[in-house]
Write a structure and sequence with these properties.
Elements lengths: L1 H12 L5 E4 L3 E4 L6 E4 L3 E4 L2 H13 L3 E5 L17 E5 L6 E4 L4 E5 L4 H12 L1 E2 L11 H7 L12 H4 L2 E5 L5 E4 L2 H7 L8 E8 L1 E2 L1 E11 L7 H8 L2 E7 L4 E11 L6 E4 L6 H17 L2 H14 L13 E4 L15 E5 H4 L17 E9 L3 H14 L9 E6 L14 E9 L12 H14 L3 E2 L19 H4 L3 H11 L8 H6 L4 H5 L25 E7 L3 E7 L1 H8 L2 H11 L1
Helix pairs in contact: 11-12, 11-18
The structure holds flavin-adenine dinucleotide.
Protein name: D-arabinono-1,4-lactone oxidase
Pathway: Cofactor biosynthesis; D-erythroascorbate biosynthesis; dehydro-D-arabinono-1,4-lactone from D-arabinose: step 2/2
GO molecular function, one term: D-arabinono-1,4-lactone oxidase activity
């Protein structure tokens, strides 16, 4: 069927045999099915740069817009989506060239490489390594750079975006351009897919090294007494797992060591999960959420948290276990309270799953939240989080609350630009019908995320949290123009190379250019359930829920979806909460 489509559509467009195409509207979604996109002019899968140039030229002649699409689409915002009225999408899955320049100490890789596979390839073929990587190795190089995907380090450049030293890009007029000057590259570091079809990326590399992880449990007071920040400043990398329910923290700290150090472990952070176990977990999460049993959710999070320092138990969505890279046996004896696990950087910086918890069948789908703020906002943000958890208990059996630290970036669309920042992240489990039924944690998530965005100079990761931080909302969350001081330079550059906006999509027009008409499309019945909107009326929540005003510091207000019984219990305590806020902030 695809082959037939290719033949007639290819002939029609004048580039037969150069690119597979699916003619007619191509519908696609994010990996967890919440973000739904359509490309009216179809999907193309070019095999070469010449193919890309042909497609772009044809699209320009037909006044169509172009967006790169990746195989799995791990972002959960409309950044993924084609322009909805006249777009086509183009997959670079066949772009997997790889060259190593020994003199310059750089690698140049095609956009289709998955980050962990690329890291492994350069380690094994050339004995070199990236200095740091995002934790999830299934994302593509192109996707990682487009949204600024990061790991966690204050001492090393923590993302491929910030390491970028060259791109090869097909521009709107069909020209192929190699860009290596730092001033121009700054725009490409977080580009949201708007600066052309980037076929290849060049990054610096260092001699292959090993990473030694040490995991240590702490009381949650380390979050606010300066200990955590000190640990982050002293380490090569750090992942901090906070379980507010048990008031405890596990800090997993990275130390970079010589490649001759003993150890061949693998960080199985986002592991393969047996289908049968996925099915059990999925059923359990649905039952717990539909019955509102927060206490059982908390018991599940406690189990996850305990495993952080034991390396025993079954693999779940996130299972920060270490195992031997060859035998695949958990390296339990080398892991635990204050003990270490060591392996090659390509096995320890980034994790990869083939049969992930979120693969079909029996996929456990989730929303992934990531909100970034300046380092000096961490302590007040944690205090605020504790304040609201004390009123509206919450637990995260999939993830704990993850805290990561990110070294300053000069990218235009990273904020706070030029300053180190911290990311507070968590995952919520979908209901079986996520468009109808509310997640157990919905009210809390609404509250905490609005608080971060309104009170703590925060902004959402471009590919996480959902659309609401970027679109119309009744509480006045700042839009990109207020958040990114270098945004005018980005938009000026974008317009200079693509005056007709061929590579723009609705998401960019809404979030970066502030288009109010597009932003308004995210306000519709039940829009809060999928994090498209902040509720302004009850109809934006689930049936039976109330859109409720709750206080934030500095006399601000959040709007959150609550069940009637949650609302009754909470409103009784709001006065005391305002006093807490007045005392703390
Ligand atoms: C389980 C999980 C773990 C995650 N872990 C992390 C993490 O550790 N750190 C982090 O920061 N984020 C993380 N994320 C978020 C994720 O890294 C980002 O959303 C990333 O952008 C997804 O990459 P992708 O390859 O799926 O690209 P997509 O999400 O499909 O695309 C993102 C954007 O990139 C554009 N694009 C892709 N390739 C090109 C190209 N060649 N030229 C132009 N535009 C292009 C697309 O058009 C789109 O606009 C995680 C997400 C999940 C689901």
């Amino acid at each position: 069927m695809l082959h037939a489509a290719r033949t007639w559509f290819g002939l029609l467009c004048g580039f037969a045999l150069v690119a597979f195409a699916q003619a007619g509207e191509y519908d696609y979604t994010s990996f967890q099915k919440i973000i739904q996109c359509k490309a009216p002019n179809g999907l193309f899968t070019p095999n070469s740069t010449d193919d890309v140039i042909s497609i772009v030229k044809q699209a320009a002649a037909a006044n169509q817009s172009v967006r790169v699409i990746t195989p799995n689409r791990w972002s959960i915002t409309d950044v993924l989506c084609s322009e909805s009225t006249n777009g086509l999408v183009l997959s670079l899955q066949n772009f997997k060239d790889l060259t190593y320049n020994q003199t310059a100490n750089t690698v140049t890789a095609g956009s289709g490489w998955q980050v962990q596979k690329l890291s492994e390839a350069i380690g094994q073929m050339f004995n070199v390594s990236f200095i740091h990587l995002p934790s999830f190795g299934s994302i593509t190089v192109g996707g990682a750079v487009a949204t600024g995907a990061h790991g966690s380090s204050l001492n090393h450049v923590p993302s491929l975006s910030d390491n970028l030293v060259g791109v090869r890009v097909v521009q709107a007029d069909g020209t192929l351009r190699n860009i290596t000057d730092a001033a121009t590259l700054r725009h490409y570091k977080v580009n949201l897919g708007t600066l052309g079809v980037i076929t290849d990326f060049t990054f610096p590399v260092v001699p292959l090294f090993k990473v030694q992880w040490t995991t240590t449990p702490y009381d949650e007071s380390v979050l606010t007494n300066g200990t955590l920040l000190d640990l982050a400043k002293q380490s090569d990398g750090i992942y901090v797992y906070w379980n507010p329910h048990s008031k405890s923290v596990v800090a997993a700290v990275m130390k970079y060591v010589n490649s001759s150090a003993p150890g061949n472990d693998y960080w199985n952070y986002i592991p393969n999960v047996l289908e049968a176990f996925r099915a059990v977990q999925k059923t359990e999460y649905e039952i717990l959420q539909s019955t509102g049993l927060t206490s059982l959710f908390c018991a599940a999070e406690d189990q996850l948290h305990a495993r952080l320092t034991s390396n025993t138990g079954l693999y779940q969505l996130i299972a920060p276990y270490f195992e031997n890279a060859v035998t695949k046996q958990k390296s339990g004896s080398a892991f635990g309270n204050g003990l270490t696990s060591t392996g090659f950087s390509y096995n320890m910086l980034s994790s990869f799953c083939d049969d992930c918890a979120f693969n079909e069948p029996e996929a456990i789908y989730f929303n992934d939240f990531g909100i970034d703020m300046p380092l000096d906002q961490l302590v007040p943000a944690i205090t605020f989080t504790q304040n609201i958890i004390s009123r509206l208990p919450v637990c995260f059996p999939l993830s704990d609350i993850l805290i990561r630290f990110i070294k300053a970036s000069d990218a235009d669309l990273i904020s706070p630009s030029g300053a180190d920042y911290v990311s507070i992240e968590w995952d919520t489990t979908h209901r079986n019908d996520p468009f109808k039924d509310p997640e157990l944690d919905l009210g809390w998530v609404n509250w905490v995320s609005q608080g971060y965005l309104l009170n703590f100079n925060a902004k959402s990761h471009w590919g996480k949290t959902g659309n609401f931080p970027h679109y119309a909302n009744p509480v006045g969350i700042p839009l990109a123009a207020q958040l990114y001081p270098q945004l005018p330079e980005f938009t000026r550059y974008q317009q200079s190379i693509d005056p007709n906006g061929m590579f723009l999509n609705d998401f960019y027009k809404a979030s970066v250019l502030g288009n109010a008409t597009i932003r308004a499309t995210k306000t519709y019945p039940k829009c809060a359930l999928t994090y498209d909107c902040v509720c302004s009326t009850d109809e934006h929540c689930a049936a039976g829920q109330k859109c409720t005003d709750v206080p934030l510091p500095a006399n601000k207000t959040a709007k959150i979806c609550l069940d009637s019984d949650q609302q009754a219990g909470l409103l009784d305590t709001v006065g005391a909460l305002v006093e807490d806020f007045n005392q703390h902030f």
